[in-house]
Amino acid sequence: MKENIFINKAQMTPDQQRLLKILEEESEKLSALRQHMALNLKKIKNYLPVGNGIDTMYGKLEEAIWYKYGSSKTPEDQLMELLDFRILDLQDLDPQKKKAEITAAIIMVKQLAINFAKLYALGAHHTNHKGQSEALKYYRAEIIDFKEAEKKIAELDAEIKKNRTSKDSTYIPNDELSESEAIAAREGYDKKYKVLEKEYQEFGKSDPGAYLAICLKQIKESKEVFDKNGNIVETPFVKENLRFLKDLFRLGRATLIRGELGTGKTELAKHFIRQYLQPGNEEVLEVHGLRTLEKEDVTTRQGIRQAPKELPEKQTEIVTEAWKNYEQTVLKEQLEKIESPEEKKAFIEDEKKIFRQLYLEKFKTGVETFEELSPIYRAMKEGRPVLIDEMNAIPHYLQPVLKSIVDKNTGESITTPGGGKFTVKQGFWVVATWDLKPKDGSLHAEKELIDPGFLSRFALMYYDYLPMNLPAKEPDDIEERRKFRQGNELFRMLVIRMLNEKLGAYMPEKALDDLERLAQCARIIQDVFKGEEKVSQRLYRNTYGVEVDPRQILEENVLSLRYLIPIVENWKKDGFCRPLDDYIFLHYVSRSKSRPEEMHLLYYILQIIGDFFKGEWLGAHNTKIMDDLLRYNIIRKMYGVDKLNGHEKPIPDESVELTKKYFTRKEIAERLFGNLPEKTRFRKDIFSASQNEEQKMLARKQKKVAE
Fold first, then answer.
1. How far apart are alpha carbons 685 and 687 in whole angstroms?
2. Which pLDDT tens digit goes with each residue over 376-393?
3. Do the Cβ atoms of 54 and 82 come closer than 8 Å?
4. At 210, which helix (H) or strand (E)?
5. Which residues contact 16 (CB under 8 A, 6 or more apart)?
6. Is 265 left (phi over 0), alpha (psi -120 to 50) or beta?
7. How far is CA 235 from CA 256, 281, 487, 494, 655, in A?
8. What is the number of alpha carbons within 13 Å of residue 216 lying toward its C-beta?
9. Would you tell me which of 289, 590, 656, 658 could form a disulfide with 393, CB atoms 3.0–4.6 Å apart?
10. What is the pTM of this model?
């Protein structure tokens, strides 16, 4: 960059500093409007004239609305003239479906018209008014600065990744590199990493564009993972546990992930397998821990399938080879139990006759039996990881079988119960999960005890609920505030689930506050479920006015990811047209109707601590609350019937609809990671307007404030 094109903030005149403040505010509004409009344009692009991209249409729509002087048509009318719905005729849609599609497009048009009106009021695109065009000039300058910072961050990030890859390669046995040379190389890579990481962090902390680029990179990566797998976001806490799993895999240690109900142990294991051990292969070999599990479920069982048609000479070859294999395995074991040579000979003849008849019948019917490998045996044969979910639910008598499997090493020969043979391939690895009982860390009721000898085969790791700060005042220090916000990983996961492809979101203006309070309540309930000592200080008053330790009441319904995700997903799917409170009650609180006292506890925490269920909802201390909660029909309150297609649809709440706003990616980043560093230098050309124009712009701003 050329330094002479910049001006430091400290060198600005008072008028320039006041103008800068206005430009920053209007640029932020402009950013929100443009991002929101780009998304709406994309939704109706199929109905716009063919051969025009969104950027081209953006300009045409502007021209249609603002530069047809003398037109009496409204912006909405101008937009409607550009739409062409003939594409729907080619899709062979029924009339009701077509009408619904057109209605949805018209809603987008109305929103676009509103946004264009806001842009016009902002004055960002009115080229005849140079003073107000400064907002657009400033907005473009900000984008240029961000792109340059983003490019530098990407280059540093690429260098860091290259350094890590080079270091990882030294762990792979190599004839060209001795052990001492490998250690020395790793030390060199570690030194270079420290230098690169220091430069990366210092640039990020000093430059607002760089800080934003780092935040958006993390958000984008997390969103991509979440969109792909649905139930996990790679927050720092998750990444730390993934690194630990990676180390255990390198050591070849079977791993047992322990944790409370709903922490996401299974999703962590599946994500690690998909993302790091078999990228591109979505299938995870998995055994579900059940009390009804049998030996065949962890070894092999007989299956039936369509047999290929073979020529007579090929049939003879197949029978001969199969008999030879059978004779050396199963028959050999049976003959060891027979002492008389005559009986052995007769037994062999009978077995051979039966064996041949079975194969001939198979060739005749076209159906054959085969030995179907369990997921564990497949993993050994194919050299893949296998997940044993809820291992402590597996019957005790199967543990010796699993023990022998976990001990298998690469290259060992395996003989299946049906006589098949294969060699354990490199890449075989066992990872298991284990639910803890909340109060004392022992096993859940009705779960099998784990044999200590079997357990000793596993490396143990504990996986907790996602970190989340409990309700508290944020630190005043900017660095401490950043750490505080970055520690709210559960909140981050919920927010990322709300974002669109531009990493923004069109939601109620209090949506981020609502999601943060929901995450805080979830962590409190999770701590209660875990039996944390600190929650004993949060005594709650039941419907009889008696203070009770919440740990004595919460039995099962912990507010974990498996319930948080449906809450926010359905809120988003319904277009945020109703308060979040309704979805919390429908998808979580109402699950405890069979345990009324637990239901009241959850309602109490969410209302008193989370500030949910206000207004028309009954107070948690109301003596009639228990009966009302049990009778409450939340579905009837939330949903009606669509007259167009007869399907269920949400009933919009006008008080929510009127408060929606577009959250820009910068707003999202600052809420999740903390405020951007203060910008200290700016491009001089943003102040290219004359002194008179600047004064006019400031006067307009002061007039708006006064109004």
1. 5
2. 999 999 999 999 998 888
3. no
4. helix 208-229
5. 687, 694
6. alpha
7. 21, 23, 9, 12, 34
8. 22
9. 289
10. 0.79
